[in-house]
Amino acid sequence: MEEGTLSILRRGTTYQVRYASNDPYAPDRQPQTCPDAATLDTLLQHLGAEATTITQACTTVQHGGLAVFCMRLSPAQIQAYFPLITTPETSREAAAPWWRTRGGSGMLSQEGVVRPCWSSRRRNAAN
Fold it and tell me: Does the reported pTM lie above 0.85?
């Protein structure tokens, strides 16, 4: 079981449920979208939320608030309802500085300090 935080927000006519692990090194997860309050209620029941928590969360978000509460979920529940985000932005390469991934080292000195490709002195000297 993994401890984390569920947050629920109403977006127009739908409800968005997000899960965030309490482990700061855990990967980000996709949110779950519920088309109506009944679906939200069912999702929270499947995740193991208590009836009073479900009632309070639904009331809070129906009145425009943000419901946030702690949950303990199994790895199977996390994967089933909140799959990993699989966009290129989450890849290890995307997290690296641009000069390490795109061959942009021409503007960096050995110390990693940005330096211009040309100086105004060189340009004026050529004229």
Answer: no
